[in-house]
Amino acid sequence: SISNDGGYSFSEASNDGGWVHSDHHALWINPQNPKHLYLGTDGGVYMSLDHGVTWSHLNTLPVSQFYHVQTDMQSPYNVYGGLQDNGSWRGPSQSAGGIENRDWENVGGGDGFWVQVDPQDPAIVYSESQGGNISRFNTRTNQSKYVQPQAQKGEPKLRWNWNTPIVRSATDGKTLYCGAQFLYKTTDRGNSWQRISPDLTTNDTLKQKQYSSGGLTVDNTSAENHCTIFSISPSPFDDRLLYVGTDDGNIQVTTDGGVNWSLISKNIPGVPAGAWVSRVEASRHNRNVAYATFDNHAYGDMRTYVAKTADQGKTWTFLGNSTALQGYAHVVIEDSENPDMLFLGTEFGLYVSNDGGQNWVLYKAKVPEYVAVRDLVLHSKTNDLVLATHGRGVLIIDDISPLRRLSPELLQKDAVLLP
Question: How far apart are CA 359 and CA 12, in angstroms?
Fold first, then answer.
């Protein structure tokens, strides 16, 4: 809106001159020419030269806000991800002449978050929009089906996170998991779901008062839901071994496919109780090892929290002591070949460790230093590291194989040739 009388009255500035994407984040007014405006939104950056009467969309800027990223096994492989207020998309990792906007294909609506592709049929894509609304989309036939689990008779109302995880099994391509306060499993592409856990959250009723604390209107997007499952990690060694992290500080593990669960996050050194579990990640190399990141910024705490267990959660080691680290942590993954190589995404960049997390280095080779790295995927065939950033789109670091050879001894040499 625009005011010409010091704020006593306003008129709509974005409707008369063409559609401008909603959810505005930033507005810049040229101090030398107040008719010249830049507007930052969930849909990108717009420019006006006439006080907002008309707007131009600057769609050449890679400023999309991805939450999560996934890849398939096609050649060249495709990249999948969910965008803030812009649905879910699939695009090529390579394209003759460079990847353009038109190369991307919509595979889901709403606020896009998690996307998973069926490993047996890459035309089948699962996407999640706000509040656990899960759809199965067939890109071959353009058919879409809503497949969210529903509460059974006598069960409490399901609490879905704004950013509900849908995660594929690491050992069985038919199996998918998703979580509300309970964990659900499907083996038939979402046509039916089995609940395989009790409430894995703290179920703290003091944190579930959005219906009485919303003021005149109640939040209807699930953005205020709390005490929900936020991260799911099946072990690549055994599908019965599963880790689950919640937005109210719990990490739970089962070793029998959900029959029994153990709370393993009561005393993680260096991590405040109740910190949001932004990611829990089962090791690719050792069935007893897992990693976790924590986000406590809602309490004004911007520190980087990352931890490792070597005994399925009985004890934990804190990996966030490096002075190089900045920003609250979103995701940690382990390299597929070198168990001592870890990749960490925080609100302020991508960090790499080659000594199991004792020391970290900010990765700056053509990756923006201060960008929120929300998700990471390491492609098993190409060794590409794919980043979902919130504000700079999807980035691909081609073939991280040379990084695996950067041992402390090698780094002391003046010059080295790497294969």
Answer: 52
